[in-house]
Specification:
There is one protein chain. Helix content is 15%, strand content 52%. The protein is mainly β and 185 residues long. It has a 6-stranded antiparallel beta barrel with strand order 2-3-6-7-5-4. Strand 9 and strand 10 (157-167) form a beta hairpin. The chain is elongated and about 95 Å long. It starts with a helix and ends with a strand.
Length: 185
């Protein structure tokens, strides 16, 4: 074999090894879930009031930590407590392990042991519990939805089901499937 043949074989092997190294590194760079980002700011131990476009309260949130994504302007929160006012200015209280809030605050995704309590002082105080809840805060159309299992508790009643649409302004809740009611005196 001539030196040119050896050089061709060596370059071919080097190109093959370089291609394999690049392919292997590319597999390591693929994300396994939501892409990580570097927040443009972080708040710790805070309370924040978000206003709608008319200057009225859209939501109030307290949490140990908030991180804002500079690209989407959305916020990620750890163990937040939200207060969502309805059109009668009653405040629905919501908690979860984590939450995501859209840039304008019109959508909140509660994740991990999500709970919404009806306003205090209601004659029929109730609680909605689910692994996940999506809350929409547009004035006059305040609502919550989830496709997951739901438990609604009120004095003397426990309602279980799957899939939920809740309208905060009309105090109306619709469960979609597997609905079971238990009355407790």
């Amino acid at each position: 074999m001539s030196w040119r043949a050896w050089l061709t074989v060596a370059l071919g092997v080097a190109a093959l090894l370089a291609g394999l190294a690049i392919w292997n590194e590319n597999n390591h760079l693929k994300t396994r879930g939501e892409a990580e980002y570097r927040p443009d700011y972080v708040l710790t131990d805070f309370t924040m009031v978000s206003l709608d476009e008319k200057g009225k309260e859209a939501l109030t949130v307290s949490a140990p930590q908030l991180r804002r994504n500079p690209d989407t302007q959305a916020m990620d929160l750890d163990t937040p407590t939200f207060l969502f006012p309805d059109r009668n200015n009653r405040r629905w209280r919501a908690t979860s392990k984590t939450a995501w809030v859209s840039a304008k605050g019109e959508q909140v995704k509660l994740r991990g042991d999500a709970v919404i309590d009806s306003p205090t002082g209601d004659a029929d105080q109730g609680r909605i519990s689910s692994p996940t809840l999506d809350v929409f805060t547009e004035k006059g159309k305040e609502r919550a939805t989830t496709p997951d299992a739901v438990v609604i508790t009120k004095p003397g009643t426990i309602i279980r089901g799957r899939g939920l649409d809740a309208d905060f302004n009309q105090d109306r809740v619709v469960l979609h499937n597997e609905v079971r009611i238990q009355y407790a005196p």
